Amino acid sequence: MVLISQPVVMAAFSPLVGKLSDKIEPRVVASIGMGFSAAGLFLFTFIDPDTNFGFINTGLMLPGFGFALFTSPHTNAVMRAIVKRFYSAGSAIFGAMRLIGQMLSMGITMVLFWLSIGSARITPEYCPLFLTSLRTAFIIFATLCVGGIFALLTRGKAR
What we know:
The protein is mainly α. Helix content is 78%, strand content 0%. The protein has a single domain (2-154), classed as MFS general substrate transporter like domains (Growth Hormone, Chain: A), CATH 1.20.1250.20. The chain is globular and about 55 Å long.
C-alpha cells in the first residue's frame, strides 16, 4: 500500500498535463515537474527508523506529481524534434534511454550500499549504515534533478 501513492498520483495527473503541455511550453512544465521530483527526493534525505507513513506517502506523492508533470511534456518535445519517418526509431531510442537511466540509478544505489555495508545482509545492526547510504543516494538523485531543471530550461523552445 505504501508504494501505490506515487503511481496513483502520476496516473491521475498525466492526462491533464498532456493537454497542458500542448498549450504551455513543454520545457517549462517539465522543469516544474523535475522540481517536484527533486523536492520529493530531497525529502527522503530526512528518513530515519521512526519515519511515519504520512511522511513517506508525501515523499512518494511529490515525485509522482513531478513525473506526471515531466513525462508528457518531455515526450512531447522529444517526439516533435523527430522527423515523422523516424518516429519508430526515435521512440525506441527514447525508451532505451529511459531504461538506461533507471539501470544507472539502481547501479549507483547498489554501489553506495556496497561502499557502506559491503556484502553484509541488511539486518537491524546495519540499519544506520543502510540509511546513510540511502540518504546519500537521495542527495545525489535530487541534485541530478536540480541539474536537469537547468538543462531543460536552457534547451530551445519546442514550438
